């Protein structure tokens, strides 16, 4: 468990050295474009809210009056939430959107972008979030400092696993010492790296805020959409895919076989050509990319506009990669950071990848 957390932290540290635009890694996003050109937004807009708009803020206020403690195991530790949080900070629009989809936006007093940009949010959910204060960056881009958390009077922080370190917000002990509860996106630690981690997060936020009925409805409808896609490709032969996360001096950083992103590829009917990498994320050398010869390349966009296109230009500038099938055939698929890490948007990356590599299944 701790080993995985440290592994992710190591990746983030490499990111800092490798990309000036990725300040302290794992938090940022860019304009949503396909690598080969501007694409139609396939975020399904109001589908992200999954029909939860009907419940109003008055219900949220009533929810906050509910009592009863909830105990959840977070990163191997039992945390007791003895009251509904009233002053939550959501680190990342991905986490903030889950709260908004459950009509919990009135509980959020501040948020940060993390790896996401507002334009990548579902419009109906961003409408609920747009007036919430965007907190200043701390040690990492899109991540608040612990001083900001304390000065805000927050009683709850919803973030990713590597944010609970002295390199980002603060270690768990600092939260405990100041009686600030936290919840950690489950797909970023431990051994649960499939789409069920997202379902768990939705359910657990529902339990913490006592809106279990809404969370179960959201999970049910989200799962039905994911299952609808995976059903179409379940009998298809997996297509070899390489994920270009970011450029490193020694090569290109890419996920291994034991992380959430690898499972997204599987759901889309793809095979990660570097699934044999033991670490969560590692560097793929140019020689290894040639040897693995992927049929498609997925390019992740974070903060920088047209980042996917710039990654394509880099790949195509290397003569030694000219005969790699994906590059030779210009088989590129662009996804954004909010679609790449656990969120309500994972369905969009699964669908986009599946339609690109198995188009016949969607006719």
UniProtKB/TrEMBL annotation:
Task: Write out the biased-composition intervals (Polar residues).
Answer: 36-55
Annotated keywords: Signal
> Which branch of life, at top level?
Bacteria
Annotated Fe/B12 periplasmic-binding domain ranges read 87-361
The record's listing under InterPro entries reads:
ABC_Transporter_SBP, ABC_transptr_periplasmic_BD
State the signal peptide span.
Answer: 1-26
Start and end residues of each stretch annotated as Disordered? 33-65
This protein's record includes keyword Signal:
yes
One Pfam family it belongs to? Peripla_BP_2
Q: Which family does it belong to?
A: Belongs to the bacterial solute-binding protein 8 family.
Q: Per its record, how is this protein called by name?
A: Fe/B12 periplasmic-binding domain-containing protein
């Amino acid at each position: 468990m701790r080993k995985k957390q440290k592994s992710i932290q190591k990746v983030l540290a490499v990111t800092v050295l490798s990309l000036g635009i990725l300040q302290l890694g794992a938090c940022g996003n860019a304009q949503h474009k396909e690598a080969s050109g501007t694409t139609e937004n396939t975020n399904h807009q109001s589908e992200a809210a999954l029909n939860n708009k009907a419940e109003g803020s008055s219900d949220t206020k009533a929810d906050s009056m509910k009592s009863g403690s909830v105990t959840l195991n977070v990163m191997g530790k039992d945390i007791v939430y003895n009251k509904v949080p009233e002053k939550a900070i959501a680190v990342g629009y991905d986490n903030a959107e889950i709260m908004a989809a459950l009509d919990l936006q009135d509980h959020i007093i501040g948020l940060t972008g993390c790896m996401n940009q507002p334009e990548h949010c579902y419009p109906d959910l961003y409408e609920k979030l747009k007036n919430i204060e965007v907190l200043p960056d701390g040690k990492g881009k899109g991540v608040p400092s612990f001083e900001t958390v304390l000065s805000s009077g927050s009683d709850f922080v919803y973030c990713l696993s590597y944010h609970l370190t002295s390199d980002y917000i603060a270690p768990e002990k600092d939260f405990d010492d100041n009686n600030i509860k936290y919840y950690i996106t489950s797909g970023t630690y431990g051994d649960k790296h499939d789409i069920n981690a997202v379902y768990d997060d939705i359910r657990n936020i529902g339990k913490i805020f006592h809106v279990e009925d809404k969370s179960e409805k959201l999970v049910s409808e989200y799962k039905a959409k994911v299952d609808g896609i995976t059903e179409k490709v379940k009998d298809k032969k997996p297509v070899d895919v390489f994920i270009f996360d970011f450029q490193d001096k020694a090569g290109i950083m890419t996920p291994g076989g034991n992380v959430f992103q690898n499972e997204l590829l599987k759901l889309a009917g793809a095979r990660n050509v570097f699934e044999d990498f033991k670490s969560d994320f590692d560097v793929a050398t140019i020689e290894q990319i040639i040897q693995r010869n992927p049929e498609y390349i997925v390019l992740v966009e974070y903060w920088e506009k047209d980042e996917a296109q710039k990654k394509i230009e880099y790949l195509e500038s290397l003569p030694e990669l000219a005969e790699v099938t994906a590059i030779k055939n210009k088989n590129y698929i662009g996804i954004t950071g909010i679609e790449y890490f656990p969120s309500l948007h994972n369905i969009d990356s699964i669908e986009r990848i599946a339609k690109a590599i198995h188009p016949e299944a969607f006719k």
